[in-house]
Amino acid sequence: METEFENLIKLQNLDIEIRNTSVLLEDIPRQLEEIDKKSEESLQIVQVAKDNFSLNQKKRRDLESILQDTKEKREKYKRQLNDVKTNKEYSSLLKEIEEANAKIDSLEEEIIGEMLSADDIEKEIKAASKKAEEHFNKAIEVAKDIEAKSTLGQAYLGLGLLHKTKKRTQK
Question: Residue 38's closest CA among 135, 127, 143, 140?
Answer without folding.
Answer: 135
